[in-house]
User: Fold this.
Amino acid sequence: MSENEATTSHPESANEGGDKENEFLEPENKRRKTTPNSDKKYKLEERLGGILCCAVCLDLPKAAVYQCSNGHLMCAGCFTHLLADARSRDDTPTCPTCRVEICKTTATRNLAVENAVSELPSECQFCNKQFPRNSLERHEQEECEERVSGCKYHRIGCPWRGPFHEKTNHEQECGHPKKSGAEVMEALEILDQKVMEERKLYKAIFELLGYDKITFNDIQLKPYRSDDFVHRLLYESSRFYVSGHQWLVKAKITENQKDPTQNSERVMTYQLVLKSKVSTALSLSYIVLCGPVGDIKVQPRVYKFDFTEHENETPYETFPLIDAAECNRLLAAKTINFRLIMFWASN
Assistant:
C-alpha cells in the first residue's frame, strides 16, 4: 500500500467511527426534555423527602413531628409506639438513631419540618396525580374522580364499589331498587342489628340516670411491674371512697399473652375492686368515659356486677378504646386518666 492510499483511508475510517458514535446519541428533542433545572427540581424533592422522613418508619410524617435532643425526627405514631414498647419492657425509651433518651418532656415538636412536609408533593392513591400533602386528603375524599365510592342503594344491599365518575351510570342501571321486599329486608336486618345495639346502649344509660345514687370519680392509673419471670406491665389507681366504701381500679395489657411486647395489637382490660367489707350485696353498674382531665377515645360500654362478702372483684373487662393505636398512645403516657361513673341500684 502506498503512502497516498494510506493517508486517504484515514478520513474514511474517521467518518465511519463518527457515524457509529452518532447512532448511540439521543435525539435532540428528547435531550431537551431533561434540562438541568427540572432535574435539580425533582432531585431536591427526593432529597428533602429522605431528610425529613421519620427515623423509624422511614416515611414522611402525616401529622405531628417530634425530635430528640439531637434533632432526629420521628412521626407521632412511631414516637408514641417507641414509648409504649419501652414501657412494656420496663426499659428507657431511646432515639433509634443516636440512642439518646427520649420522653414526652424532652422530645419537642418540630413545626418547621411539619410545615415543610405539608408542602411536599404526594401522589393520590386513586388517580396517581401529585398534590401538596396539605391538600391531598381533601382531594382524595371530595374531589378525585377516581376515588372509591359506593352505590346510594347500599342500604338495601347493593355491594357495588367503584370509581366516583362511574357512580351515576351504575345507579341508573342498579337492579336493587327493583328487588322484592323480601330481598330488601335481608339487607335491612343487618343495619337494624347495628342500630339496635346503639339503642340498647342509650336505653341502658338513660335507665341508669334514674338510679338513686350516681357518683363519678376522675381516676388516674399509674404503672408498675409484676414479679413474674416475664415482667408484666400492670396499672393501679389510688384508693378512693364512694358511699362509705373503699375502691380501686386495676388494669393490664393483652391479658391472653405471656409477653405483650410480642404483639402490636394490644388490648387493655380493667377491673373494679372493692376493698371494704360488706354485709349486704351491692348491685353496681359502671361505665368509663373520657372525663375533663383525660384525652382517651372510648366507645362506652356499661358493665354490671353484684359485690358480696366473697365476691369483691369484677372480672377483667375490655377497656373500651377505639383501637390498638389508642392503646399504644395510652401506654406512651406516664399516667392514664379517665372518669368512672358508678350507678347504685336501690336495695
